[in-house]
Design goal:
With about 450 residues, this protein is α+β, with helices and mostly antiparallel strands. It has one domain: Outer membrane efflux proteins (OEP). Helix content is about 70%, strand content about 10%. It is built from ten helices and six strands; from the N terminus they run ααααββααβααββααβ. The strands form two sheets. It has a four-stranded antiparallel beta sheet, with no helix packed on it. About 35% of the residues are buried. Belongs to the outer membrane factor (OMF) (TC 1.B.17) family. Keywords: Coiled coil, Signal. This is Outer membrane protein, cobalt-zinc-cadmium efflux system. One of its GO terms (molecular function) is efflux transmembrane transporter activity.
Length: about 450
């Protein structure tokens, strides 16, 4: 009798160790290696995986918003060309009296002369408008680049979550098979098999959700690249390469040179130039006339010279000048408000990045190793009969949830860094290598 009990315990231990070995084989690797093994088994197409650099290049080349901004730059160049043009002279002809004997004919050219530096002011205003359009184009490039970076790492994290979910499904299937064999052998209750199959079904639901999130992330990234439907199936990169939290001095320096702030500063200069245009109009222009007059009665030509100057008695362009000055004040106030808003946004993004990095550090150093240790202990304990299978499934789900939370935190870190780049302009990416979670 004692020998039979000993054999029964030995077979139970062997089955538990087999299950533990199967589980440990899947989870003993660090997270990047685990993701790489799962991705290598996915279906591949002829197209190579999309890299971050290639995604940015495609977006800057094909994005329609950039095309619109480029058209605006080309259009305002016409304003500069028109501002450089001088006023046309005027040719005038006059006929007095219909009778031939007393008829008088005259022809003259009227040449307007702009005073008050009107042309120079007009050119300066047009050039400032062109500068605003160019900076608007640069700002759109920065925004699109930041949007692509955020969407790329979101797609990369979703791809890795799908790989984790697929690994969890494979592991749950193997665990269900192992429990089913033990039920057939009469080692455990059929209830354990039911729990295992319910747990496997739950993991399959999580896989379907992860795949749906991956398709949505891919579609958002593809829309930025001007490709619908997506022309890629995989994205390549390491979501573990975290962006570094910039210093406050670095933020201030980059903020002062940001495209958004520079555009607002150029708008103030443009408004100042437009005010100079309206101010120059208060100086009246002079029109010089040169012509010939021929009275038939005298039978000879007479030279005609003339000068005309408008008298600014009623209309001194005071209304247009007041409007231009107030719009200059408005642009200056908008610049100050934008500076405050951008400073607040970038500091909030920096704080979010620092907070997420702290969360990631805790996950790397404490949560993931602890969850893996608990799962390994539950698996081994189940083999020795110390834990039931439900406890093993709970440990497995906890470990998977910790890994999923880790990937979401990584995506949030890259999103916060992209938000900073959207405000202060993209810089050379500075990242820290991932921590080995072994």
């Amino acid at each position: 009798m004692l020998k039979g009990i000993h054999n029964h315990n030995a077979r139970a231990t062997a089955a538990g160790l087999l299950l533990a070995f199967t589980a440990g084989l899947a989870f003993a690797q660090p997270l990047p290696a685990l993701l790489g093994n799962a991705q290598s088994g996915a279906q591949t197409e002829a197209t190579a995986p999309l890299s971050l650099q290639k995604a940015i290049a495609l977006a800057l080349e094909a994005n329609l918003d950039l095309t619109v901004a480029q058209r605006e730059v080309e259009a305002v160049q016409g304003q500069v060309l028109q501002a450089q043009a001088r006023r046309n002279p005027e040719l005038a002809y006059a006929l007095e009296d219909q009778r031939t004997q007393t008829r008088t004919q005259s022809a003259q050219i009227n040449l307007p002369i702009e005073l008050g530096s009107k042309r120079a002011a007009r050119i300066a205003a047009a050039e400032r408008g062109r500068d605003v359009a160019v900076e608007e184009l640069n700002a759109r490039r920065v925004e699109i680049r930041a949007a692509v970076v955020a969407a790329f790492f979101e797609a990369l994290a979703a791809q890795d979550r799908t790989a984790l979910a697929q690994d969890s499904v494979d592991l749950a299937r193997k665990a269900t098979d192992a429990v089913a064999k033990r039920v057939t052998a009469g080692k455990v209750s059929p209830v354990e098999e039911t729990k295992a199959r319910v747990a496997e079904a739950g993991v399959r639901v999580e896989l379907a959700q992860a795949q749906s999130e991956q398709r949505s992330a891919r579609a958002r990234l593809a829309s930025l690249l001007g490709a619908s439907p997506p022309q890629f199936t995989q994205v390549s990169g390491s979501v573990d390469d975290l962006p570094v939290v910039p210093s406050l001095d670095d933020i201030q320096q980059r903020l002062s040179a940001s495209s958004a702030l520079r555009r607002a500063q150029l708008e103030v200069e443009r408004r100042r130039s437009l005010a100079d245009v309206e101010r120059s109009k208060q100086t009246p222009d002079v029109t010089v006339s040169l012509g010939v007059k021929r009275p038939n009665e005298l039978a000879r030509n007479q030279l005609m010279l003339g000068v005309s100057v408008p008298l600014p008695l009623f209309d001194r362009n005071q209304g247009n000048l007041l409007e231009a000055l107030k719009r200059e004040d408005k642009a200056r106030d908008e610049l100050q408000a934008l500076n405050v808003r951008l400073s607040t946004d970038v500091l909030q993004a920096r704080e979010r990045l620092a907070s997420v990095r702290g969360e990631i550090d805790v996950l790397q150093r404490e949560v993931l190793p602890g969850a893996k240790s608990a799962y390994d202990a539950a698996t081994v304990g189940f083999g020795y009969g110390k834990f039931n299978f439900l406890e093993v499934l709970d440990a497995q789900r906890t470990y998977f949830a910790a890994q999923s939370q880790y990937l979401k935190a990584l995506a949030e870190a890259h999103r916060a860094a992209a938000d900073m780049d959207r405000v202060i302009g993209a810089s050379e990416p500075t990242t820290t290598p991932p921590v080995n979670k072994e």
